[in-house]
Structure formats: structure tokens, C-alpha cells
Amino acid sequence: MESTHQKKATFGKRERLPCIAPLLTTVEETPQMVSARVRGHFPKWLSGYLLRIGPGKFEFGKDKYNHWFDGMALLHQFRIEKGTVTYRSKFLQSDTYKANSVHDRIVISEFGTLALPDPCKNVFERFMSKFELPAITDNTNVNYVRYKGDYYVSTETNFMNKVDIKTLEKTEKVDWSKFIAVNGATAHPHYDPDGTAYNMGNSYGLHGSCYNIIRVPPENVDLGETIHGAQVICSIASAERMKPSYYHSFGMTRNYIIFIEQPLKMNLWKIVTSRIRGKAFSSGISWEPQYNTRFHVVDKHTGQLLPGMYYSKPFVTFHQINAFEDQGCVVIDLCCQDDGRSLEVYQLQNLRKAGEGLDQVYNSVGRSFPRRFVLPLHVSLNDPEGENLSPLSYSSASAVKQADGKIWCSYENLHPEDLEEEGGVEFPQINYGQFSGKKYRFFYGCGFRHLVGDSLIKVDVVNKTLTIWREDGFYPSEPVFVPAPGTSEEDGGVILSAVITPDQNENNFLLVLDAKNFEELGRAEVPVQMPYGFHGTFVTI
């Protein structure tokens, strides 16, 4: 089957999109290793596990989940060694999965699905159960994260599950709130070269809600430790006491944490009363573009919140690309959407549509584009108003001081117009080990000419050019960059992506591309049905 590179399409409202319902339906796990059929070749130096995670079960008994984010976590493992590839998958044996399985119904609520009262209870008991505190899900289906050399699967609640990456078995459940005063943490931490991890999590109290920056030390002191020694190094008060912003990730340079407070709001009153009102957690999240987006910058060594008040027009970001420091500024690159209603769109009934209904859903979703913002760190009272304070000659992003002392930030597009034809880009990845927090040139992501990724894209943010891999009828996952040994070149390595298809007559496969020219080196075909997932990582053997 031929692949299309640098293919262009007419941008506009897309029509006659193919149905992708099979990519968003329940599959069976594959606990025993399956040998893949390799076409082409996998480099002999490439040795390790590509670990991925995402939802893989969408109903229990007669109960069905409503939202893509709700499905039970399915762990995937591609083992690559000496040019051969094997595959296995297992459902995460979370307490949520076990409880739902025992009762053969949904007993613990998820992001977009409210668990209904036990039908075996009488009317009064069912009514009173609405006033009980709901159990928090430990269905950690978003990403693999690393703390102190151990791997966990994570979502955005206070629970993580430690896993053995060789067997995909859960070994321990960890509760953030037992270690620090937070009610959850993101599934996208950042790492210093020494293994120190940084994350963010919210806390809620009598004085309102706070965004907390968390630091986890790089090594265990004693056997059996998990995130012992975790600390909150800075707390940032929410602009609205009862309506903090939703966030999925944050930025980090060598010296600073950058938090984006965006007008995608969580109404705490609606969330707390959701069970009484018979609504899911997601009903408490709303896009409120009457508010601007604000950037907060924190010194990650001292925990000090910098005084600069940086604002921009309203946008939503789920994934940051990279951030670095240059000439007294923080430069942060983000995948941005001007419309923050995409969470509402990813209901399973929408994703599984066909024909005109599917086209209408796709055309209602805001596209995501890479943008650069520049935040001058040393702004003084004497700086002139109305002038661009950014000294960076290579970026058209501006930071203009206003009369009230705020800095108004306007972005630079990091892409050519061609990216609009590709449906924008998401799931950004870089050569993290060598270029995280540093000035860089390339990132990789998925193009979205459908509701899930339908191409792989390499973006040159300096020359603003694209290189594209696509194969009609196939849908690639988030690209993972693996550096080749002994090279310091930014794109010296390969890209790995799990590519799946709704066509039951075709095999899914693990794709390996040369990261330099985006040419296919090989693919490992697996005769196993896989759902479209979220995130993952590569671990060297």
C-alpha cells in the first residue's frame, strides 16, 4: 500500500469523512505476546518497549460510557529487539475496573458518565445515595509517567497506578493526597536531566482554589517508596475562587515553570453537586471566552511567582510543545485552539457517527495550531507603554506593556498555511532528552483531517515547513521520537507510531520512520484489533 508524502488538500469544511466507529469500540485484551510480521526493517540499535495507553472498554453489562475519556484503561506494549517486534495488551486492573466487572455495570463515575444508583436498592436508598460523596476513579488511562525511575499510568485525579512495564501488571495504587495537599495532578509532568520531576495539581479549600507546582525528588531513599518527598513549591491563587481553569499540561524551561490559566473553567459548585443534579463531572466545565488567557511564571528553584502579568486573547491549550529562555525572556510554544468547546464534542455518540452527521461534528471542532509566545522576565516601571518589549529578532511574537502594567502578548504562528490543509496538529513531541527546555528546531505531531489523527507531521519551527506521512484509511498515534545512539543531531533518530485502521481486512501496525526525512523504514503488522489511544513513551531495554 502506497504512502503519500507532502500531500496537499483543499482546506475548508470537510465532507464524506469515513466512519471510524471501530476505532472507538471495546476490544479484547491480548495478554500473550504476539509476534509481528516485519516489512522493511527496524534499526538494529532500536531496542526497548513502546508503551501506550488509552481507553479500550466502553461498557459493562447494559451500562455504556458517554465520553471517549471514560473508557477503561488498556495498556499496550510493543517490544522491539534486534529487528523483531512483539505486541501484547492488558486491561489495567484498577479498583474501578474490578468493581465494574464484579457488578457488571458502571459503579464509579468517570469524566463524562455518571454512575447510576444500585438498582437493587429501594427507592429511598437510591435517592439518599445521591447525597453520598462519590468514589474517585482510578481508571488512569491517559499517559505513562516516571517518578524516581518507576513507571506509573496516570490521569488527572489524585490516583496513579504503578506498573511493571515488562508484564503490564499493576503493582501498586498511589494517592497523591496522601503525600501532599493536592486533589490531583496532570498526566504530563516534566523532568530535569537528573530525574527530578515537576508536575501541577489543584487544591480546594475555604479560601478558594489554588494551582500547585509539585516537585518530586529523583531517587528513592528507601525500598518501597513511591512519591515520598514530593513537595508543593508554589501555590497560585485562581483568578476566580470557585471557577478555576482546567489545564492538561504546563511548560518548563531550565529555570522556570510556565502555567497557562485559560478561560476553560471548572465550576466547582456544579461539579460538587453533579451527582445530586444527575449530571456528569464534565457538565461543570465551560468555555468562557469573555476572559483572557493569562501566563504565570514561577522560578522552579525558589518557588517564587514572578510579578509579571502576562495576558493574551482567549485560547485553549492541551499540550505544550517546548519552552526555553533567551535574552531575558521565556519563549513558550503551544498547540492552541481559539475555540475551547472541543471537550464537549468528544462524546462517543459523536465520534461513532457516519455520513453527514460525522461531517457536522468534525466541522464544529476548533483546529489546533502551533504558536509561540514571548514573555519578557525583567519588566520595570520605566519600560515604555505601547512598545514591544521582546528583544528577539527571530520571532514576530510581541509583548507590549499596557497602561495598567499588564503585558499583552501576541503570538507568532510556527507553521505555514499548509498546516490548515492538514487539519492542524496535536500530540506534539520533541527530542525531549536533548532539547527540552532548550532552543530547538523540530517537533512532531498528528495532523487532524479527522476527529482522530490521520497523518504524522514533522514541523520545522525555524523555516516553518512541514514534512508529512499519511496512508489513506489508517490513523497514526502520537509520534514518539527515539534518538539514535552516538548522535547529537536534533532529528537524528526515528519516529515510532502505532497505526490503526477501521478496515477489518487490514492489519494494524507499528510504524518506524527516519526522523530526518520522514521516510518509512519499516512496519510491524499485528493481526489484533486496537482502539485509538492517547499517549505513551519509549523505554530502552
UniProtKB/TrEMBL annotation:
PANTHER family assigned:
BETA-CAROTENE DIOXYGENASE (PTHR10543), CAROTENOID-CLEAVING DIOXYGENASE, MITOCHONDRIAL (PTHR10543:SF122)
Q: What is the recorded name of this protein?
A: Carotenoid-cleaving dioxygenase, mitochondrial
Annotated Gene Ontology cellular components are:
mitochondrion
Location within or outside the cell:
Mitochondrion
Alphabetical UniProt keywords: Dioxygenase, Iron, Lipid metabolism, Metal-binding, Mitochondrion, Oxidoreductase
Q: What is the superkingdom listed in this entry's lineage?
A: Eukaryota
Q: Which GO terms describe its molecular function?
A: beta,beta-carotene-9',10'-cleaving oxygenase activity; beta-carotene 15,15'-dioxygenase activity; carotenoid dioxygenase activity; metal ion binding
Query: Is ATP-binding there in the keyword field?
Result: no
Question: What is the protein's species of origin?
Answer: Callorhinus ursinus (Northern fur seal)
Q: How is the cofactor bound?
A: Binds 1 Fe(2+) ion per subunit.
Q: Which cofactor does it need?
A: Fe(2+)
Which family does this protein fall into?
Belongs to the carotenoid oxygenase family.
What are the binding positions for Fe cation in this chain? 188, 248, 319, 535
Broad EC category: oxidoreductase
- List the EC numbers from the record: 1.13.11.71
**Major localization listed first in the record, in broad terms:** mitochondrion
- InterPro entries, sorted: Carotenoid_Oase
The answer on whether this UniProt entry bears the keyword Oxidoreductase reads: yes
Question: What is the role of this chain?
Answer: Broad specificity mitochondrial dioxygenase that mediates the asymmetric oxidative cleavage of carotenoids. Cleaves carotenes (pure hydrocarbon carotenoids) such as all-trans-beta-carotene and lycopene as well as xanthophylls (oxygenated carotenoids) such as zeaxanthin, lutein and beta-cryptoxanthin at both the 9,10 and the 9',10' carbon-carbon double bond. Through its function in carotenoids metabolism regulates oxidative stress and the production of important signaling molecules.
